[in-house]
Amino acid sequence: MSERISASWLRSVLPLAAVLLVILSFFSVTFVVQRKTETIDRLARELEANSMPSIHRLTAARGQLHRVTIAVRDLVRGGEAGVPRSRQDYEKARSELDASMAAYLQLPMYPAEARLNGLVATELSDYTRVIENLLGSLDAGDLVAASELIDSELMPANGRVEQRQDQLIELNADEARRTSQDIQGARQQATRLSLALHALAALLSGLVLFAVARWSRGHERLVEAQGRLEGERKDFAEQRAAELEIFGARMAHDVKTPLTAVALHLALADKKAGDATQVQAALKKADDGIQRVGAIIDGLLAFARAAGQVSQDSSADVGTAIASSMNSLAAEVQRVGAEITVEPFAPVRVACSEGMLLCIIGNLLGNAVKYIASSPASVRLVLVRVRAKEKKIHVEIADTGPGIPQALQPRIYEPYVRGRDTRSPGLGLGLATVRRIVKAHGGALGFGSIVGRGSQFWFELPQARHSGHLCQGAPQVARGVSSSSESCSPSHR
After folding, report:
1. How far apart, in Å, are the Cα atoms of 237 and each of 25, 244, 458?
2. How many other C-beta atoms can be found within 10 angstroms of the C-beta atom of residue 173?
3. CB 106 within 8 A of CB 131
């Protein structure tokens, strides 16, 4: 029923989506053309505000420069003829030249134009200096010196200024031609793009309509195929669940039978050992190990029979699980010279069976002790932290081992993945098992690692309904001695 509703909904929505897509394509045409129009307007404003006014001001300044030179030369010639002339024409021409150059300098400039302006300023300064010297000689009555300055300095200086002004005029003319060409090119491009996009929009409209028609005809067949695939998937999942249950039952039978016999013999040995303290301690550790294996097997079997669906009523004490795991690793910890420290924490319980929790902590602690053996003896440390975090229990296990190679980190939780430098036995299934158990219980997990400095693995599980008080005393430290790891368990509060 839900599939038929979904198919009907899609058939009603797809035509609307097709129409919207066509509208979007035509809107894109308008947008592109508008952007090209803005480019043309910008280029036109640049031509109007920069190149053309600059050419006009520079042309005027060039003419005014010529008039200044003529006015100065007339002053000298009048003095030679004995008919002194007024400086009014010179001062007027000079004032107009200065005004034209000041107006030009107020306009926007191109980068190359700014560099040329520096040269123009230098040439104008030299030109002004020559005129001042010439007028000074004229005022002193030295007409010979004034006349010589006209030919030797004034005319060359005038020519240099005119040359720079001509360069600026040509530069602005070139920029005006380039801008005009850009405007013409932008118009042609806008026309071509408009035609191309309109053609594309029309083609897209036809393709969308054709695709919608084809989809409508084939969608019902796809829904039927999807239904068959879903049925096959359910059958496969049920088959795998049955196989998992058979595996769990066989493992429980094959492993628990010999462990039961070992437990009986250990109990008999315990009775015959009398008061031998060391023998009894060894037998007690062996019995604890067997009980731990039995709990793990019971948990795995329950997990398998439930096809990965855990019981919501399960709970386990974190302190007890840590202590039990450290007891089972005591011999290995002492062999490699490692040190396990457990920071004090309040007694807490997690929504997980005891066997599953032992499997998680045992795998993580076992990996830490296994790989830390390759580190220097002085820094073989393992630290365990437990804290409550928003209705979840957060457990961290950090070590000073070699760390995880960068290339291995993305696959660290995959089955059969192991560190390349370890010589310890194993199949590389520990972390994969931890991940499956934590995820099945609605928890989270992760890790961090620095090559050469160590790794930190953590997991979080939902907190069970339980209250307790903070354990007092120093942090727990274990160096192959099981009793030192139990100060935070409920039985040692």
Report:
1. 46, 10, 30
2. 14
3. no
Would you say 39 and 188 are in contact if contact means Cβ atoms under 8 Å apart? no
Stretch (H or E) spanning 299: helix 277-305
For 81-111, give the DSSP string: TT----SHHHHHHHHHHHHHHHHHHTS---H
3-state secondary structure of 325: helix
Helix/strand/coil percent split, the chain, to 5: 70, 10, 20
Question: What distance separates the 2 farthest-apart alpha carbons in the chain?
Answer: 151
Check if the beta carbon of residue 461 is closer than 8 Å to that of residue 351: yes
Domains (range + CATH), the chain: 2-211 (1.20.120.1730), 314-492 (3.30.565.10)
Helix (H) or strand (E) holding 387, with range, is strand 381-389
CB proximity list for 72: less than 8 A, separation 6 or greater: 90, 131, 134, 135, 150, 154
CB 461 within 8 A of CB 443: yes
Torsional sign, CA 273, 278, 279, 282: positive
Please name which of 322, 330, 393 lies closest in space to residue 362, comparing C-alpha atoms. Answer: 322
How many other β-carbons are positioned within 10 Å of the β-carbon of residue 381?
18
> Which structure tokens are listed for 458?
């953590």
Residue 388 bridge partners (DSSP): 393
CA distance 401 to 455: 7
Closest to 436 in 3D by CA, of 333, 265, 306, 327: 306
Residue with tokens 């079997």: 301
**Partners of residue 478 on adjacent β-strands:** 340
- Separation CA 71–CA 86 (nearest Å): 10
Q: Which residues pair with 342 in a beta bridge?
A: 384, 476
* pLDDT over threshold 60, residue 409: yes
The pair of three-digit structure tokens given for residue 64, joined into one six-digit string? 């005014």
What does each C-alpha distance from 366 to 113, 331, 369, 370, 382 come to in angstroms? 77, 12, 5, 6, 11
Q: Which residues make Cβ contacts (< 8 Å) with residue 355, sequence separation at least 6?
A: 295, 296, 297, 298, 299, 300, 302
pTM: 0.43
The rounded percent of the chain whose pLDDT value lies above 70 is: 70
pLDDT in tens, 426-447: 557 788 889 999 999 999 999 9
> Between 302 and 313, whose confidence is greater?
313
DSSP 442: T
The Cα–Cα gap between 160 and 20 comes to 67
485 near 351, Cβ under 8 Å?
no
Cβ atoms 410, 402 nearer than 8 A: no
